Amino acid sequence: MGGVAVVTGASSGLGEVISQALLGAGWRVALAGRRAERLEAVAGGHPESLTVPTDVSDESSVAALFSAVRDRWGRVDLLVNNAGTFGPGGTVDEIAVADWKAAVATNLTGSFLCAREAFAAMRSQDPQGGRIVNNGSISAHVPRPGSAAYTATKHAITGLTRSLSLDGRAFGIACGQIDIGNAATDMTSGIATGAKQADGSVRPEPTFDARHVADAILYMASLPLEANVQFLTVTATTMPFIGRG
């Protein structure tokens, strides 16, 4: 049987697919998300699942999540920091400050709060150590037009990943990042019908099965803590990412 995993944003999209893949591979999985009924549906009554309604932007909610996990299983071996939102669109002068703050609260502060709790658990448990996988995005490399809030948070996730990797060395805590481009989920459904390009045109873009993301996470999680996938990029092969698009 695998270890104990926490997956945020587990009620839909990539989080749903990742959670179900981990359960299928023998992991004990805590599914965290805002919608209790959707978490239960994703878990499907699996005996090694734990559903915990969570707002990752709220410190007390995140603390309660990890407390519930430790009460159930006594440790944390894997955190998949997946919760996120596209946030506001538009040029920077068109973005409301409240919408900017909301995107930062979910995408960046949420990942920090979850990493903070996971790191503390992994540092103190016996045997010590664990793994954190942050969901970056290809926006952690380059932006889409009108995505200042989302892109800024995803660039910041890369900084968080690097810092966690460095600070975790003394405690057997590995941290890696998966950057995903155009996995087919409800969140990205509009991309397949038309996405704004750098030249101002709107064109459909290719997508790929989200299960391939879950397979990548399973590989990253399967490694011994002496080995780490630091950065992994998975995209639709012909999406406009490499080169000039």
Describe it for me?
The protein is an alpha/beta fold. It is built from 7 helices and 11 strands. The strands form 3 sheets. It has a 7-stranded parallel beta sheet with strand order 3-2-1-4-5-6-11, sandwiched between helices. Strands 7-10 form a two-stranded parallel ribbon. Strands 8-9 form a two-stranded antiparallel sheet. Helix 1 links the parallel strand 1 and strand 2.
Q: What is the helix fraction of residues, given as a range?
A: 40-55%
Mean pLDDT: 95
Q: Which strand order spans the largest sheet, edge to edge or round the barrel?
A: 3-2-1-4-5-6-11
DSSP E strands, number: 11
The stretches of 5 or more residues where confidence is low (pLDDT under 50) are none
Percentage of β-strand residues: 15-25%
What is the end-to-end distance? 43 Å
Radius of gyration: 17 Å
In terms of structural class, how would the helical and strand content be classed?
A: alpha/beta
| Tally of individual helices | 7
Shape, per Cα inertia axes: globular
Largest sheet: 7 strands, parallel
- H/E element string? EHEHEHEHEHEEHEEEHE
How would the blueprint of this fold be written?
Layout: E1 4-8, H1 13-24, E2 28-33, H2 36-43, E3 49-53, H3 59-73, E4 78-81, H4 97-124, E5 130-135, H5 148-167, E6 173-181, E7 183-184, H6 189-193, E8 195-196, E9 202-203, E10 208-209, H7 211-222, E11 231-235
Parallel strand pairs: 1-2, 1-4, 2-3, 4-5, 5-6, 6-11, 7-10
Antiparallel strand pairs: 8-9
Please name the defining characteristics of this protein.
two-stranded parallel ribbon; 245 residues; alpha/beta; 11 strands; globular
